[in-house]
Amino acid sequence: MYPDISAPSNDMAAFRTVLASSRRIIAIAGAGLSAASGIPTFRGAGGMWRKHDALSLATMAAFRDSPSRIWQFYHYRRETALEAHPNAAHHALAELTIPTFREKIAPGSAFTLVTQNVDALSPTALETVLAHTGATLSDEEKHVALIEMDGRIFDVVCTAYECKHREEIRDSPLSPALAGTEELVAAGAKEPDIPHEDLPRCRKCGALARPGVVWFGEIPHRVDEILSLVDSADLCLVVGTSSTVHPAARFARQVREHGGKVAVFNIDRTKRDTDADFLFLGPCEMSLTEALSVPSDSA
């Protein structure tokens, strides 16, 4: 039986008791998960959206108005992601997707990681953990275990309505005209106006391409699956997110409203902490790895 918790607790032993009793676990991850990997966060101190106006950089309207500016911003983000590697928190969540590992800390449970991050570090961590442990997951099991709801920064999508070709491209840079502009974005300097014909193009039809991420006002990937998972979850792990962007901002509260438990792992306090049964402040690569570690007598 779950302990009666009326306010967020930082009792790690109590959390691990709840974890061991949980059967349907979901994790909602945000930018803080990748902070230790060198990926800038968005809304914390020094966050990317404090330096750049989100609505001027992450909408289709903004792209139509200035594809040169938007591509330079996303080129900067692509270059940052290309240099990054998964950290301990990514690996801890990746291990939780493996049934044989999960059986040691949450017997008989199912788990899905829903990440808002577009840096592709979570799938990289999963492949690394599988290779290191010798465990295997089918493509279908991987599909169930990990949902990248906002897409991937390395995906490139054709803007031509009759084409809409999507592919993952990790070339650096995507087009020669973008080379070096990441330094201007990082410095907050005025960017050059790159002609449309010199921006990334669709490799299938040649039309102007766009970054393959979900922008504000667009529908996240696999949202129906996510909502179904939220509706059935008895434990929600909120990892490194300010919980301000919908629909993800309400997931934890929805879990709690139907009787599930919520554990938040974050570097700072947020206004959504009242939705939590457990609150662990500090770098998630430390708190989360402790929370999800295998007990020494079970290793």
TrEMBL record:
One of its GO terms (cellular component) is mitochondrion. It holds the Pfam family SIR2. InterPro entries: DHS-like_NAD/FAD-binding_dom (IPR029035), NAD-dep_sirtuin_deacylases (IPR050134), Sirtuin (IPR003000), Sirtuin_cat_small_dom_sf (IPR026591), Ssirtuin_cat_dom (IPR026590). Its main location: mitochondrion. The keyword Metal-binding applies. Keywords: Metal-binding, Mitochondrion, NAD, Transferase, Zinc. The keyword Zinc applies. Zn(2+) binds at C158, C163, C202, C205. Gene3D superfamilies: SIR2/SIRT2 'Small Domain (3.30.1600.10), TPP-binding domain (3.40.50.1220). Residues 5-299 form the Deacetylase sirtuin-type domain. GO terms for molecular function: histone deacetylase activity, NAD-dependent; metal ion binding; NAD+ binding. PROSITE patterns: SIRTUIN. Coiled coil: none annotated. It is found in: Mitochondrion. PANTHER family: NAD-DEPENDENT PROTEIN DEACYLASE SIRTUIN-5, MITOCHONDRIAL-RELATED (PTHR11085:SF10). Belongs to the sirtuin family. Class I subfamily. This is DHS-like NAD/FAD-binding domain-containing protein. It comes from Obba rivulosa.
